[in-house]
């Protein structure tokens, strides 16, 4: 059985019921997680921000507790979803958007496509693709992902292995030990979440390419930007190269570059105070 009570509420955005949790008072901050992430991944960050901000967390279609995804959204669709969510919640003033990993693409696109709605950006170990070149038509890759998810679901793998796979991903993306969240089992044992993850993964290279194109003809608004990079403390060439790429992203966006250490890719779990500080210090 699912844990009770269910946090948040369902809000219809673009005709689709999305699970949304809004807490606190003051300027609005939207927290959006990476590929396959859910609202509860931001629990520790939200707890630090709620005394100072209105904190909005939502699950993209198919993820967390949101309704199943229909067709995969493109980059502009994800940016429009954030704007429509703010509208549905009655937030008319500009909002700060915090995007982790893949959602860093969405946050930046939101700023470029909806400049009047954006008060600032915080990119938390955001995805970076300097020269993305998808090799297959978008529809072909999406169809393959849906087919693969259907086969795995028919075999019962989400129910058998979904929560365990999610726990392994969390362990690989963190440098600290974290207790298992009580809502992992409720969501990650469903074919709904598996399908959403497969479609997000399939859409990744196209969203990366769309962002590169968007940068050429839609300028960044004059809003503060913070790029927060994860660093696990090692001196490996891979880790150091990642920090340099994140620093370059900050330069491209005219933002401030900071490092969260020690932290894995799931910075919000390993270093929630660093994420909260990046938001509160945004000027």
Task: Explain briefly what this protein structure is.
With 283 residues, this protein is α/β, with parallel strands linked by helices. Helix content is 45%, strand content 17%.
Topology:
Elements: E1 9-13, E2 16-23, E3 28-32, H1 43-49, E4 54-58, H2 75-88, E5 95-100, H3 103-113, E6 118-124, H4 138-154, H5 157-172, H6 184-188, H7 191-217, E7 225-230, H8 237-253, E8 256-260, H9 267-270, H10 272-280
Helix pairs in contact: 1-10, 2-3, 3-7, 4-7
Can you describe what's shown?
With 283 residues, the chain is of the alpha/beta class. It has ten helices and eight strands. It is globular and about 50 Å long. The mean pLDDT is 95.
Any key phrases for this structure?
alpha/beta; single chain; 8 strands; globular; 283 residues
Low-confidence stretches: none
Strand order across the largest sheet: 1-2-4-3-5-6-7-8
Element-by-element helix/strand order: EEEHEHEHEHHHHEHEHH
Number of strands: 8
Q: How would you describe the oligomerization state of the chains in this entry?
A: single chain
- Proportion of residues in extended strands: 15-25%
Shape summary: globular
The count of helical stretches stands at 10
The secondary-structure class comes to: alpha/beta
> Major sheet: size, sense and barrel closure?
8 strands, mixed
From the N-terminal CA to the C-terminal CA, the straight-line distance is 45 Å
Helix content: 40-55%
Rg computed from alpha carbons, rounded to a whole number of angstroms: 18 Å
Mean pLDDT: 95
